[in-house]
Fold this protein.
Amino acid sequence: MKHQRWLPWVFLAPTALGMGLFTLIPIVASIVLAFFQWDIITPPKFVGFANFATVATDSTVQVSFLNTIVFVIVAVALQLGISLGLAVLLTEKLPNWLRSFFRSAFFFPLVLSAASVSVFMKYLFNEKFGVVNWLLSLINVPAVPWLTSPAGSAVVIILVYVWQNFGFSFLLFLGGLASIPTETYEAASLDGATGWRKLVQITLPLLSPTTLVASVMAIISALQVFDQPYVLTGGGPGDSTRSAVMVIFETAFQRLEFGQGAALGVILTIIIMLITALQFRLSKRFVFYQ
Amino acid sequence: MALTQGDALAITRRAALGALGAGVVGATVASWPRLTGTDIPGRGDNSLSIVIQGTKADASARQKLVADFNKVHPDIRIKVQAIQSVDWKDFFVKLLTMVAAGQSPDLVYVATEGTQLFAERLAEPLDSYVQRDAAELKEYFEDVHPSLVEAMMYKGSLYQLPMDWNAANMYFNTSALAKAGLQMPADDWTHLDFRTMLSSLKQANGSDFTPYYWTNRLFGGVVPWLYINDTSVLKETKAPGGRWLWDSFYQNDPSSKMRTGGALWEAPNALDPRVEESFDFLRGLVKDGLGVRPEEGGGNTLVGLFASGRIGTTPAGGYWVEGLHEAGMTQDQYDVAFFPKWRTQRHQFGTAGYAIMKTAKDKDAAWEFVKWAASKPAMETQFALPTTTPTRRSMVNEALYAGKGPKHWKVFYDTLDKFPSTGPIPAPPQQAAVETALIKNVSLAVSGDQAQLKSALQSLQRDLEQALGGK
């Protein structure tokens, strides 16, 4: 019918409008802004690639991007490892109510505000008055400067981030595990396969599509880490926990170099796109579809 | 004919689209004030919009002030909007975002941290208004210390009338002092006396006790220790000018001749040997367990920790009195002293007042509010509790601290009178970047060995150069 031609567009319009207004236009504006010097107050001035040249030689930027890469490697490995491990354990024979309880408990941190969690954790990990050091003191472990030493800060930020985010990967893995046919395990058992062998030769390969999705999402999210280092350590001590997004925020909103901030945003976006593209390319070799 | 349930649920596509359209129109009409920005305080009418740092409750608390103002100026409508923020740096970020979005307020209550940022870019100088209404303002300036006024000057022009202020004095837990057999220190005590006191406090109060707690920020962190050692992380020079004000209002003040057009911080100074000396002193306190490694911020936890008797001493200003009272501390459980002496006894302070924005719709009306807010009755309404220190000397009195303490409350204003070189927080127009640079390097500087200290100061110097390079 005639009016059916435009009907899909009507239904798509709200989403398209939202995407255009709040995603597409800001992306284009950020890319354009990266070529201007702008401090909010005075009119923007075109500077070509100068912003990219400036941020590329900035030692704080270099350190913060390196920190972010190290953070992504450790945090994503932990997040995926823990969530996969817990998902596998939870598919074992457990009463339904206990399974439901753990499923909710593991997912719960994800719905909390990262900033609120970080404020709370800041109290827990305070060197002098925190509960964590008090507990350690009960077993004669001396006070650890969790938030005032480079190593301690990095550990706390990774722990807090992983604790708050593993729930999402956990749910993905739980869904993935449920889709593996039980007959495959039964056949393997008849052939004498043990638990470990089943995990390595059946579960992990058949779970690889889920692992790909979980790792892509975890890496993209970890590359944008901001709340935890911003609230817990302010990026310190020194630059030891400064992340890429923190440096974007500071460049734009504290130093009022919005052009440089936008240039950093463009660089980070390109890095995210490259890593994601690499993951999908590698997936052709490592991901098995049933 | 009666409809079956199936008929009732069968909604035609036409009806669905109609309902959708009606919904969109309805939602647009309902949110029209938000979409057009007319719900923003001061927009859509001629109200003066005032932005303050704080919560909605803080904005409501100023309604009495607004109501009193409207009794005098019924023709000037006022709307107060509070911006909630972690600190001043965060406040300025949010305010600048408002300005960029075309929602610039008419007046902003700004502290020293933002005075020069506003003076350089956003605020209107008050010089012509002050000169015009000199007779009315004579009484105000007679009551306010010139150091506070000078802190509001930038390159010879005055940008705000200071309303409240706080110096970094030293608070003591008197129970902890008594346990160690110590008395409150003398006015001219030194940094070495301070260290000796901390050692005694530590010995007497056990391992769970922190003799000295300090925070990592621009106010009350490392800066007071730099000021008493006659140095700072930024080179401080004085701008010429300002005689129009000093010769008009402070000609009889003994410090009038030393007054200038305001402080300038245009170059980093982190490699000054005295800076290293001050940092090294703090490093020694941390190393010997006399002071904590400072975390960023940390101010929120401080009142509770101090009130619970777990901290011996910490730098803070008059703003702490009400908080400690609410936390259950009686006036004899704590006291306040001057910061110790080193090469000088120059203290650090911060002050705040209303700045008129260059973009204000009606600057004359805005000035009327500023002038009225600085009057004694208005300030008594605004600063009825010791949550800060009023800039008017006559208001810092027995009555303000009655039942709340501390015993030596006179220390607050005496800080200005006894040490006229006492100066503002080093806050150039690039304050946010300067504070970030300082915070990020302080913790490393005081928590390692001598080599780490030197390396942190070199890093601080580089970061400050970068911060000051881009305005």
Q: What stands out?
A: Chain A touches chain B through 33 residues (CB under 8 Å). The longest helix of chain A spans residues 59-91. Chain A has one domain: 50-286. The domain at 50-286 of chain A is CATH 1.10.3720.10 (MetI-like fold).
